[in-house]
Amino acid sequence: MSDELISRVTGVIAKSQKIPPETVTIDKTFEDLKIDSLDGINILFALEGEFDLDIPDDAARGIRTVREMAEGIEKLLAAKSGA
Amino acid sequence: MNKRVAVTGIGAISAFGHTFPELWAGLAAGKSAIRPLTLVAPGALRFPNAAEVPDYDPARYFEEKETLLLDRFAQFAAVAAREAVRASGIEFSPDLAERTAIVLGCSGGGKSTEDDGFHHLYGLKEPRVSPLTIARAMSNAGASRVSLEFRITGPVFTVSTACSSANHALGQAFRMVRSGEVEVAIAGGSEAPLSLGFLKAWEAMRVVSPDTCRPFSRDRRGLILGEGAAVLVLEPVERARARGAAILGEVAGFGMSSDAHHITQPSALGAARAMRSALSDAQVAPEAVGYVNAHGTGTLANDATETEAIRSVFGEYTGKLLVSSTKSMHGHALGAAGALEAAATLGALQASLIPPTANFTVPDPACDLDVVANTPRTAQIEYAISNSFAFGGLNAVLVFRHLR
Fold it and tell me: Which residues in chain A are closer than 8 Å to B204, comparing Cβ atoms?
């Protein structure tokens, strides 16, 4: 995963959660960041806008960490550029 | 002194058709009325299916000029109320009309009316919207229309508590009849949420299933939205008997609670408190209940939490309880949901037949209840409860009793 991708993902999370960007690092869990299910949905919405992606419900289910979220975005971006 | 409260009329318009007998026949057959959405262009949404009222032509029920003032949800309220009042056989004299209440649940109001106005404003860049927008879109438009049709001049209001709206409405009506504050009540709920702007908001919330609604199944993927209305006519049992009316069941109790926990995540504690409160209001022991018409939305969170709540209220007796979610067949009609489910529950008590949880595939250890999977079951039940738990953490539970 590129540093640029990670920084865009953590930036989106920080912005949509209204928390300082430095608190969102790749190894944090949603629990660490006090992100609940409704916050998670809101972050997905912001990520769709940031990366011009359509994130299906099934791809989003079960994601509990910043790393899983960044990996999911990377996978969807790869699928999009391959298509 | 409190009066016992009879149901003497039921009306319903749903994905099964425009009448209560069609709703009940569909539920009793255990077939799902979830079908491809036609009110919105295909491909516009992540989910293709809904529980839409079939073959609905306003001209069948209203003069063309009247429809100018009536959003789809208010039309549904009137259609269901007409059927319920006709079934009850009640004629409203001016004196009785003054001692009659109307309480209808509605979550969203005239969503397609608002959507249409915003399309003209933001999409077509027109500088104005229809002057009838407010009168059509207000959430009380359904209750007000029913009041105008039957010239009901007593207490008339709308309750809006998202998915619990109709149960809260029926509960208020029940208590007004029980206490003698009114002699008759027309109560239930109506909703017409299948408008693109509102559906997009549901899509963004990621709680709508991409295929169908499978409550309590391990592979459940969310709810399926529905539309329609159901209306009950309530009056004291002694009044109904005195006039020789057919009694379709009794409303025996009502309980409500707030989770005060989270705006969207459900809480088993709050749900359990509403069930306990309803049973206590009805003076019924948990062991006397034979059937639970569950809130059972088919979302991951609701069904597991509701199971935990049912287990905490019914304890060891839970294994003997029949539980089903009829939302698997008529969809989740939001502010009409509790009313459609009240109709379903009354149908079950009358017919001694439990409508199943349709589309059920794989048992979920987190939902270890007898969910009457896929096939209706014969059972003579005296008491049943119907659960509604809303976003916002607001819970409302009704207790029904078999009565002839």
Answer: 41, 45
CB contact under 8 A, B265 and A56: no
The CATH number, out of the four listed (2.40.160.20, 3.40.47.10, 3.90.79.10, 3.30.450.40), of the domain defined by the range B253-401: 3.40.47.10
- pTM for the model: 0.96
Q: Which residues of B touch A (CB under 8 A)?
A: 46, 204-206, 210, 221-222, 262-265, 301
- CATH (residue range B5-242): 3.40.47.10
Q: B141: which DSSP letter?
A: H
CB contact under 8 A, B263 and A36: no
> Tokens in use for B24?
């009940």
pLDDT in tens, A32-79: 999 999 999 999 999 999 999 999 988 888 899 999 999 999 999 999
Q: What single-letter DSSP state applies at residue B336?
A: G
Q: What length is written for chain B? A: 404
Is A36 considered catalytic here?
A: yes
Q: Rounded to an integer, what distance in angstroms lies between the CA atom of residue B349 and that of residue B347?
A: 6
| Domains of chain A: residue spans and CATH | 3-82 (1.10.1200.10)
Mean pLDDT calculated for residue range B130-135:
96
- The pLDDT mean for chain B works out to 98
Could you give the CA distance from residue B99 to residue B93 in angstroms, rounded to a whole number?
A: 10
As annotated, the residues of chain B forming the CATH 3.40.47.10 domain(s) are: 5-242, 253-401
